[in-house]
């Protein structure tokens, strides 16, 4: 005669705790989306509505903004949150539609690589921007730079 063990007759084995990256990616998309709304509309208001509008945006306007630590932090947050938000969205699309594992790995690697490069270059531009460099011909300097 064959006997069938009672369900759950054996004690369940404890599973190793792992980080649920999908859950944290989902939470990040919602939280960063809310913060990005504030950052983007603030950016658009300052650049397009306040002051003289879009015709006032030139090299001097950007140089003035990047001389203020508040706008450096604002632009850095905007850059990092938007790029990581976009990369996470692209990662989700690749996971949903790339059926072959090798293609998925290649695409995810390309997304990660391009995101890292853009984050590094964008951050470098924000923090090293100098409208009045010490070297270079004086005639190429903007008019607001002191004579050197």
Summarize the structure in words:
With 148 residues, the chain is mostly helical. The chain has one domain (25-132): 3 helical TM bundles of succinate and fumarate reductases, CATH 1.20.1300. Helix content is 63%, strand content 0%. It has four helices and no strands. α1 (21-49) packs across α3 (69-97) and α3 (69-97) packs antiparallel against α4.
Describe the structure in brief:
This protein is mostly helical and 148 residues long. The chain contains four helices and no strands.
Q: Give the overall shape.
A: elongated
Q: How confident is the prediction overall: mean pLDDT?
A: 87
| CATH level 1 name | Mainly Alpha
Distance between the termini: 100 Å
Whole-number tally of structural domains: 1
Which series of helices and strands comes N to C?
Answer: HHHH
**Any idea what the CATH superfamily is called?**
Fumarate reductase/succinate dehydrogenase, transmembrane subunit
Number of DSSP-assigned strands: 0
Largest sheet descriptor: none
Beta percentage is under 5%
How much helix, percentage-wise, in residues?
A: 55-70%
Structural class estimated from helices and strands = mainly alpha
> Oligomerization state of this entry?
single chain
Uncertain parts? none
- Cα radius of gyration in angstroms: 25 Å
- The CATH architecture comes to Up-down Bundle
User: How large is the count of helical segments?
Assistant: 4
What fold name goes in the CATH topology slot?
3 helical TM bundles of succinate and fumarate reductases
């Amino acid at each position: 005669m064959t006997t069938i063990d009672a369900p759950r007759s054996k004690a369940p084995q404890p599973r190793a705790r792992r980080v649920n990256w999908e859950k944290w990616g989902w939470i990040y998309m919602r939280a960063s989306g809310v913060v990005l709304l504030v950052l983007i509309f603030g950016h658009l208001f300052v650049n397009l509505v306040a002051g003289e509008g879009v015709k006032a945006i030139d090299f001097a306007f950007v140089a003035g903004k990047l001389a203020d630590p508040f706008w450096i932090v604002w632009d850095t947050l905007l850059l990092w949150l938007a790029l990581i938000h976009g990369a996470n969205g692209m990662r989700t699309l690749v996971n949903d539609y790339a059926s072959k594992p090798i293609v998925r790995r290649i695409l995810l690697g390309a997304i990660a690589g391009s995101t890292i490069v853009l984050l590094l270059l964008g951050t470098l531009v924000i923090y090293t921007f100098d409208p009045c460099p010490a070297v270079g011909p004086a005639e190429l300097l903007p008019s607001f730079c002191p004579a050197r």
